[in-house]
Design a protein that fits this description.
The protein has helices spanning about 1-20, 55-60, 90, and strands spanning about 25, 30-35, 65-70, 100-110. It is an alpha/beta fold. The protein has one domain (about 20-110). It is globular.
């Protein structure tokens, strides 16, 4: 019984931390924001504090499933921003690493 209470307490604490880190939809799904031009703290919790990089939002430690990622209109590439110039052969093979339980919506005008 004590083990179940400990697990419940840890789950409740994680839930409280996650709910403060990002918005939720009306059905309780976590919403994480991505905007290449956001200038806040870049933690995905709002449009102002959106991640600048889509892969950062897709990483499991930043967005636990189930969740929705809302992406502002723009161009997002699966390479580091400082190497956006002419892609190398290796960069042409890069892809976004998608995950089950994550829904991505895009094209939001900001």
């Amino acid at each position: 019984m004590r083990g179940h209470l400990t697990i419940f307490a840890v789950a409740l604490l994680v839930s409280m931390v996650v709910s403060h880190a990002a918005a939720e939809t009306t059905d309780g799904i976590l919403v994480v924001y991505v905007d290449a031009n956001a200038g806040g703290v870049n933690d995905g919790s709002s449009w102002e504090d959106a991640y600048n990089d889509l892969q950062d939002a897709l990483d499991s430690e930043n967005t636990p499933a189930p969740a929705e990622i809302w992406v502002a209109a723009g161009v997002y590439k699966p390479v580091e921003p400082e190497v956006f110039g002419s892609p190398t052969i290796d960069e042409r093979d890069e892809t976004f690493h998608l995950r089950n339980g994550i829904t991505i919506y895009g094209g939001f005008c900001r």
